Known about the structure:
Elements: H1 3-19, H2 21-31, H3 36-54, H4 59-73, H5 78-92, H6 99-117, H7 127-137, H8 143-155, H9 180-198
Helix pairs in contact: 1-3, 1-4, 1-9, 2-3, 2-9, 3-4, 4-5, 5-6, 6-7, 7-8, 7-9, 8-9
Amino acid sequence: MDTSKARQLVEAIARTVIAHAEELTQLDQAIGDGDHGVNMKRGFEAVLADLDKLAEGNVATLLTGVGRTLVMKVGGASGPLYGTLFMQLGKSWPAELSARSFHATCRAAVEAVAVRGKSQRGQKTMLDVLLPVCDELAKETHRAALRAYAATCAQATVPLEATRGRASFLKERSIGHLDPGARSAQLMIEAVCDSLGAL
C-alpha cells in the first residue's frame, strides 16, 4: 500500500465518522458524557484539514500524524485511545506489507490501545470490536465478512454491563445500550473495508 491509497483510507474513515457524529452523540448521551460524536467529528475534521500535509511522507508518517492530530483535537478518553491506535499503526508499519505483517501491525496497535485504556475485551468498550476483528484478520477473512463481523461485535456490547469508562458509573443501567466507542470502531472498520473494495 502506498501513501496515496493510505490517504484515501484515512479520508474515508474521517468522512464516515463525521457523517455519523449525531448518532455517536446520541449513543453517548445514553451512557456517557454525550460528547463522543462531537469530539470525534472535531478530531477527524482536523485530520481532513491537515491531510495534504500529513500525506507528504510515507504511510508510517501519515498514520502517526493522524494519531497525533486525534490526541490533540479529540476530547475525553477517545482522543488518547484512537490517537494511540493510529500512532502505533504508524510506528509498527512494515517495510514490506503482507497479510501476516498487516495482522501483526494491527495487533500491536490494538494491544497499545488496551494498555493505554487499561481495558480488555468484555468491558463494553471499543476493544470489543477492535480485538475480535484483529483476531479475524489472522484468518485472512474477506473484507465483506470482516465488515459484517465488526457490526456483530458492536451489537454484542448491548447486553454487556460497562466496567470501564464513564458508562461504568451506571453499572447495570448501562445494560441494553450500544457502546458508542464500539460503534465508532465499527464505523472505521466499515470505511476501510468499503474503501479497499473501491481501490
